[in-house]
Amino acid sequence: MIRRLSLTLGFALVLGAPVLRAQGVVFSLGAGVGIPLGDFDDVVKMGWQGMGAVSFHPRSLPVGIQVDGNFSRFSDETPLDIHSQLIYGTANAVYRFQTTENTGFRPYLIGGLGAYNSKATGSDALGGSSTKFGINAGVGFDFKAGGATLFVEGRFHNVFVSGPNVEFFPINLGIRFGRQLNERTGPFFAPRALPAYPLSRPLTHFPDQ
Questions:
Q1: 135 exposed, middle or buried (CB, 10 Å; 0-12, 13-18, 19+)?
Q2: Ramachandran area for residue 133 (φ above 0: left; ψ -120 to 50: alpha; else beta)
Q3: 99: buried, middle or exposed (CB in 10 Å: 19+, 13-18, 0-12)?
Q4: Where does the pLDDT of residue 181 fall: very low under 50, low under 70, confident under 90, or very high at 90 and above?
Q5: Structural domains in the chain plus CATH codes
Q6: Does residue 111 or residue 182 have the better pLDDT?
Q7: Would the pLDDT of 96 be above 80?
Q8: Lower CB count within 10 Å: N or C terminus of the chain?
Q9: Helix (H) or strand (E) holding 168
Q10: Cα-to-chain-centroid distance, residue 10
Q11: Residue 64 has pLDDT above 50, yes or no
Q12: Distance between CA 49 and CA 209 in Å, rounded?
């Protein structure tokens, strides 16, 4: 099922590449820690995770779309060699707060739906896997570090399973790259006001930026 979803997503991205380029596509790579919550915290320890994402943002709107794939792994609380492995993908709406072009700190809100595949691995694991649906919501911010655009993001995930839901909170640090990050317009930046001119002065050319 995961393979079929991956092939479908890849095919859709290839077909939609011209549209994504027109909207300003941004790619992201990140890694960090996964913090188990609730009943999930009683059976596993804090884990680690990695993620990759592609997003696009219409220039005229503060809301964009992000699709990401993630891998998380948590060790069992017992001395047994058992690890809880999660491979999941989410589709999200992203709201970026409008900032000026000189602002190096750009916060955003993110949330959406996802499909989560869970599998127990390790020499003491019994095997087997299952795929469930869930929701996620979080907050993050982009910031400049030299010539790179980095981000820090935390998201709450709630996976719907029989019995207590699986809840965890990954925190990722990563890097973004893409065309829109180098442009001076779009949802990352507020438009810069043009200088004021007296009404009596004829405007024979566009003012210098």
A1: middle
A2: beta
A3: middle
A4: low
A5: 2-182 (2.40.160.20)
A6: 111
A7: yes
A8: C
A9: strand 166-178
A10: 17
A11: yes
A12: 44
